[in-house]
User: Fold these one by one.
Assistant:
Number 1:
Amino acid sequence: MTENIFYSLPDLPYGYKDLEPYISENQLRIHHDKHHQGYVDSVNAVFEIFRKAREENSDLDIKSFLKTLSFNMSGHILHSLFWFNMTPAGKSGGGEPKEHLAEAIIQEFGSIERFRKEFTEAANSVEGSGWAVLAIDENAKRLIIAQIEKHNVNFYPNFRILMVLDVWEHAYYLDYQNMRAKFTDAFWNIVNWQEIEERFNRAKA
Ligand code: MN
């Protein structure tokens, strides 16, 4: 399986130590190099199984493989968004959203503070493993907070994702053990508002 590898692990846009003290080097390394890599490998493995079966014209458990593909592909996509919507604290991380994004947040949620509270609660209350998501409904031109279970359950087709927060235990357990809320609080210090604003502007364009 070499010539058909389409999906690969993106490099982090910062060093492994750069999100400390909010995410430790060890935590980030395992999350990126092991967990995210695992989703990428599984996606490529499923496509390789499809390729072989098509080549040999053999039977496949389509339902089972599509389920596996959906889970792993969604995991790959969400993690790729996640790394880039974080950035080292102080430099560009943290602070407040600006300009058009800030206006849209205030229009939808009433205030930045209210948005932050709702998003944090969404993250903290994900049942089991999942994500908190800020997305834009491009038809209605409105922002929406969503809660994804696993990597692919409860999301809305066709909404454009602007920001994600991974609240799988594998995202925070080494640093925060079972205290997810401490991790979601820490996230606001390393959130990359500039990247999220750029995604917002591309979605609106
Ligand atoms: Mn993860």
Number 2:
Amino acid sequence: MFKNVTTLTEFILEEESKFPQATGNFTLLMTLIENATKIIGSHIKKAGLVDILGQTGGTNVYEEEVQKLDVFSNDLLVNILSSSNLVSTIASEELEKPIRLKNKGHYAIFFDPLDGSSNIDTNVSIGTIFSIYKNSGNYLQKGSQQVAAGYVVYGSSIMFVYTSGSGVNGFTLDPSIGSFLLSHPNIRIPEKGSTYSINEGYFEMFDIKVKNYISSLKKEKKYKLRYVGSMVADIHRTLLKGGIFLHPADFKNAQGKLRLMFEVNPMSFIVNQAGGKSISGTADPLEITPTSVHQRTPIVLGSSQEIDKYLSSIKS
Ligand code: AHM
Ligand code: MG
């Protein structure tokens, strides 16, 4: 029997219609992001053919310039969004400075066009992360001001996961019709998990408290280590299966590696909306007042009980 399906666009329209003052601009903005990520996804699928069709930086058999995928993804998002009149600030992990547009766009958008791009060459999952704010004179707003955040994971299937502050929903691309369909309604992160996700290669550089915490997990013998090295893939697994993800400070990187505006804030918003928790040092990352667009910050996020356990371990 025919089962009713909900597309991403229908879902966003429905959500926006709950606000009487809504103008439709949010739905339009999300649709532009959706379209861009579908194009990025289709290019990623051809990534392995670059050697056959032409080296990056050169020209392919069609005499087209072959761009690096992260550059391509960035340029595509910038072009689509800057011609929309919906956003007046565009900030990208790939751009040194935000683009300030002279229009009446209501939104400011931050994105990491292709996160985990060092994994492209080996066919490992990568993703796009985005974070949307209402436009304000100062584009450096706290993460708690986000109106929406999401990510797209380009994995064995392509999934679009987002929150606009009333839960988290996941949509899987049906390549035969080219639409994202609601496949994971109201995602709730399990309260506990049996997976920890950290780059343990940095173990000797971690603070003693982090080392002790990791050692305590090993002693429990119930935990598995899973670390893809693409934040989107590691968070996606943590969101669905539970567990904890850590990219803490280390002796070389006192502020950690991940970026507050492009990675930490959107992922913290999503994980919190799914019932999980996030912590940056001992602070709530969403309450950090940013001082620069590319600011880095340590981050630990995941299942609520796993974060509580982590906090009591590092405080003891
Ligand atoms: P990128 O934005 O340059 O791709 O770097 C971010 C990535 C994250 O996806 C991932 O969590 C992290 O870097 C992995 O870093 P490391 O390999 O140092 O653990
Ligand atoms: Mg990144």
